[in-house]
């Protein structure tokens, strides 16, 4: 069995490292952030992910997972190194490769000290050309070795989604291996055969730039799918009687469309879609091609927040001095992650226009407090959040919010106006007791003669 190391213990690195270690693979995770390392070593993951804490405990207790703050040690004591560092956005939206470059330099220096042939696999999301034009020369220069002969190189994009990272690592839909040469690809394929055993998912072998591009294509497709259903939702809202949830249910039955990622709402947030679409657009423009469809998907996503604010204003006339309750801060349920969360965009608009905001989230409040501090009020329950509000906006579809009844809004709010931005409530029940406005739902159809 190969020994595996991970350079960078963010969500992708840590979750994959932990899963590998629970399958009896010797794993070393290397992370430079000492505070993070302390948390991981004390079985206190730096972010929430279902099942991660339990598996981290198992992995560390078994001795299969070692955590270090030294990339060289990670490389020297393993046969395969995954680069799993972040690739954030530059100011202009293009990808920042700073961490990938730093990691590659250190891995290269470590490779110089190795006699055995080592495989370096890039899991970080990087634009096409990065591995061959940037990573490979850095590895070769620092190791004084030849790629394909003295060390192997692959691109192995990751398709995990937050909240589903552990399940997704054990059961991915497919694996992409972009190998520098046959031997590189074969080595990584063997690792996955050891890991998945009889449950091996389909493996697609490609060249390196194609593998890099697949990651962007996957995220762009999903984000565009959501922007499209949101566009249809906006048209439904202007069409008496129309309901986007029924439209989505129907078109989702067409196997060419499928029912996933057709939930209309406030738009997509998180650490991936916004960053990756921006980077893909910047990459494409650099090549002299304007990717108009992707640009439109991005713009449609920004507009979705604007339309929600307009709905609040339509019902309250002005936002000045009005008390707005925000239900949900996380960028999606079951996470405390607020990166690019729609809640933050909405709150910023509301504050700009003079509203008084109170927010509640089952998990993400502490993270928002660090950013917004005392600019908004924080409630410790949904009911407390609704108390005396002039309007409530349902932003994140947590299970807890699905249990709220019409009377919870009607009896606690000053003016019972609810904007259901994720379509979790029943129109018939809620519209009886409050002004219920929902994304993708047109005005009721007038009785027909
Ligand atoms: C996304 C992809 O789904 C993963 O495959 C990918 O690996 C990951 O990015 C990444 O590049 O690292 P993630 O950002 O964790 O995963 O979350 P998603 O479940 O995809 O949700 C993204 C956003 O879309 C959320 O704000 C969510 O509320 C929104 N969404 C999702 C909708 O508005 N409607 C839907 O039907 C589905």
Short description:
With about 450 residues, the chain is α/β, with parallel strands linked by helices. Helices cover about 45% and strands about 15% of the residues. The protein has two domains: about 5-205, 3-Layer(aba) Sandwich (Rossmann fold), CATH 3.40.50.720; about 220-440, Rossmann fold (3-Layer(aba) Sandwich), CATH 3.40.50.720.
Number of helices: 18
**Distinct bound molecules:** uridine-5'-diphosphate-glucuronic acid
Q: Please give the share of residues in helix.
A: 40-55%
Architecture per CATH nomenclature, i.e. the level-2 architecture of the largest domain: 3-Layer(aba) Sandwich
Largest sheet: 8 strands, mixed
Question: What is this structure's SSE topology?
Answer:
Blueprint: E1 4-7, H1 11-21, E2 27-30, H2 34-41, H3 52-61, E3 65-68, H4 71-76, E4 80-83, H5 98-112, E5 118-122, H6 130-143, E6 151-155, H7 165-170, E7 175-179, H8 182-196, E8 203-206, H9 208-237, H10 244-251, H11 273-286, H12 292-316, E9 323-327, H13 342-352, E10 356-360, H14 365-372, E11 377-378, H15 382-386, E12 391-394, H16 399-402, H17 406-412, E13 417-420, H18 427-433, E14 435-438
Parallel strand pairs: 1-2, 1-4, 2-3, 4-5, 5-6, 7-8, 9-10, 9-12, 10-11, 12-13, 13-14
Antiparallel strand pairs: 6-7
């Amino acid at each position: 069995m190969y020994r595996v190391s991970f350079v960078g213990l963010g969500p992708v690195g840590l979750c994959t490292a932990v899963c590998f270690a629970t399958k009896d693979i010797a794993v070393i995770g290397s992370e430079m952030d000492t505070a993070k390392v302390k948390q991981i070593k004390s079985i206190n993951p730096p972010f929430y992910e279902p099942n991660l804490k339990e598996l981290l405990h198992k992995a560390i207790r078994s001795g299969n997972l070692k955590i270090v703050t030294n990339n060289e040690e990670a490389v020297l004591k393993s046969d395969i190194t995954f680069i799993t560092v972040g690739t954030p956005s530059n100011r202009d939206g293009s990808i920042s490769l700073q961490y990938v470059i730093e990691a590659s330099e250190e891995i290269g220096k470590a490779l110089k000290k190795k006699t055995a042939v080592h495989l370096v696999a890039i899991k970080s999301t990087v634009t096409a050309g990065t591995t061959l034009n940037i990573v490979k020369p850095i590895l070769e220069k620092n190791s004084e070795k030849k790629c394909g002969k003295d060390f192997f190189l692959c691109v192995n994009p990751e398709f995990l989604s937050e909240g589903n990272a552990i399940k997704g690592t054990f059961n991915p839909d497919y694996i992409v291996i972009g190998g520098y040469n046959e031997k590189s690809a074969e080595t990584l394929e063997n690792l996955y055969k050891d890991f998945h055993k009889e449950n091996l998912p389909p493996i697609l072998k490609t060249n390196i730039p194609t593998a890099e591009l697949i990651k962007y294509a996957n995220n762009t497709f999903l984000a565009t799918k959501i922007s499209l259903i949101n566009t249809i939702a906006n048209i439904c809202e202007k069409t008496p009687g129309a309901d986007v949830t029924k439209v989505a249910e129907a078109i989702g039955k067409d196997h060419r469309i499928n029912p996933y990622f057709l939930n209309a709402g406030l738009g997509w947030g998180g650490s991936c879609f916004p960053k990756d679409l921006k980077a893909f657009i910047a990459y494409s423009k650099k090549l002299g091609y304007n990717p108009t469809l992707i640009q439109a998907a991005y713009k449609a996503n920004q507009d979705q927040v604007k339309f929600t604010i307009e709905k609040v204003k339509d019902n309250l006339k002005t936002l000045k001095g009005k008390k707005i309750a925000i239900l949900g801060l996380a960028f999606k349920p079951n996470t405390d992650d607020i990166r690019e969360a729609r809640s933050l965009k909405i709150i910023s608009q509301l504050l700009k226009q003079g509203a008084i905001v109170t927010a509640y989230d089952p998990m993400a409040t502490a993270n928002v407090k660090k950013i917004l501090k005392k600019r908004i009020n924080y409630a410790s329950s949904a009911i407390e959040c609704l108390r005396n509000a002039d309007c409530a906006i349902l932003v994140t579809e947590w299970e807890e919010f699905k249990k709220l009844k019409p009377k919870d809004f009607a009896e606690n709010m000053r003016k019972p106006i609810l904007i259901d931005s994720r379509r979790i409530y029943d129109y018939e029940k809620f519209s009886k007791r409050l002004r219920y406005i929902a994304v993708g739902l047109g005005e009721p159809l007038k009785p027909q003669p």
